Each structure stands twice: as C-alpha cells, then as structure tokens.
Amino acid sequence: MSLHSHIEQVLFPEDQIAERVSQLASEITNDFKDESQPPVLVGVATGACLFLADLIRRIDLLVSVDFVRADSYGSGTISNGAPRISLDLKLDVKAKHVIVVEDIVDTGSTLSCLIAHMESKGASSVSVCTLLDKPARRKVETKLVGQGKFYRGFECRDHFVVGYGMDFAEMYRNLPYIGILKPEIYN
Ligand code: IMP
C-alpha cells in the first residue's frame, strides 16, 4: 500500500499551503522590518519542521532560528495531559522578539506552556505563527506577550490531520500536503 493511498481526503494541497506560507512570511516581514533586533523564530519540534523551513525562506529579514520540543501527545490522537518542555532553546531570547512557529493549535495547552516559557526567559514580545488552528477544540486561551501577534495560516475543522510535518504515530510527516487518514489506519 503506497503512502498516498492511506489518505481519505486532502484538505490543504501543496500549492495552497505554499501560497499561504508566502503570505504569512510577507506579513511577518512587514511587521518586523523596523525592529532593531532580528526576531527569533522558534519552531516547535517535530511537527513545525516543514512549515518553519518553508516560512523562513520567504521572510525577507535577518532572523535567527531555534527549536523547542514540548511533549504532550502519546502515539495516538488524544493528548495525554499537560505538556512538558523536553528540548529547550539554545539561544538567549532575553529582550528579543520571539515568534513561536507551530504546526497546529488544538486545545492550546502546548502553546500557552511555550508562551509562558518564552516570557520567563525575558522575551520582550512573544508572537505565534501557526499553520493550522482548530478553534473549536480550544480549552486554554492564547495570551500573547508584549506587542506579540497571532499569525494563522488556515482554520481547520475538528479533524485529526496528518502531513506537512504533522504525524499520526510518528508517521505521515513527509506527506507534502495535509489530509485525513482512512479510518481503518487508526485501528
Ligand atoms: P494542543 O496542546 O492540544 O494545542 O496540541 C498541540 C500539538 O498537538 C500540536 O503541536 C501537534 O503536535 C499535536 N496535534 C494536535 N492536533 C493534531 C492533528 O490533528 N494532527 C497531528 N497533530 C496534532
């Protein structure tokens, strides 16, 4: 069975993702062009890897890049509780503008944990750039820091999605589009 045959439906095809990523990068470029300090883009591993890679190549500014990892998901589709930071920043973000780059915001608990973490490290502002947002599932509201902004690629209905960095059981991240798996794959 080929990888693509596991997909029930493509929700966001490659060209639509590429176009939206370019728009987000232009917004970020425009919003930060007059800042004296280059913003720090912090990708949330592993899901944001493809999005971050494409986004930073479209930003026409000096930026620095780092990663964090926050684990709360098990190997299934249901969160297993409060997130924990299992890989911390290498860069010092004190007095810097941080942009947390996420694949998807679901309940919001991972994001609020990461924002609080960046604030505790002295970031002067914390923005969020997420490719997908599932507002219907939100349990924890996102409180940005300083002049931080919320950049969102697409609103997503309450589906469990895979591809373009997002996984099910650590697989399907390498799909170039975002889609839904066939129901039999989950069983
Ligand atoms: P939250 O803490 O509930 O907002 O979950 C955020 C994290 O859960 C994301 O960064 C993803 O890694 C993962 N996640 C949430 N929904 C999905 C999904 O539909 N597909 C794949 N991963 C997801």
Question: Could you explain how this protein is built, in words?
Answer:
Helix 1 packs across helix 2. The chain has four helices and nine strands; from the N terminus they run E-H-E-H-E-E-E-H-E-E-E-E-H. It is globular and about 50 Å long. It is α/β, with parallel strands linked by helices and 187 residues long. The chain has a single domain, classed as Rossmann fold (3-Layer(aba) Sandwich), CATH 3.40.50. A six-stranded mixed sheet has the order 4-3-2-5-6-7, with helices on both faces. Strand 5, helix 3 and strand 6 form a beta-alpha-beta unit.
Descriptive terms for the model:
six-stranded mixed β-sheet; 187 residues; binds inosinic acid; globular; 33% strand; Rossmann fold
Kindly state the number of beta strands. Answer: 9
- Give me the CATH architecture, please: 3-Layer(aba) Sandwich
Predict the CATH topology: Rossmann fold
Order of helices and strands: EHEHEEEHEEEEH
- Helical segment count: 4
What's the Cα radius of gyration? 16 Å
Which ions, cofactors or small ligands are bound in this entry? Answer: inosinic acid
Mean model confidence by pLDDT: 94
Distance between the termini: 16 Å
Structure class: alpha/beta
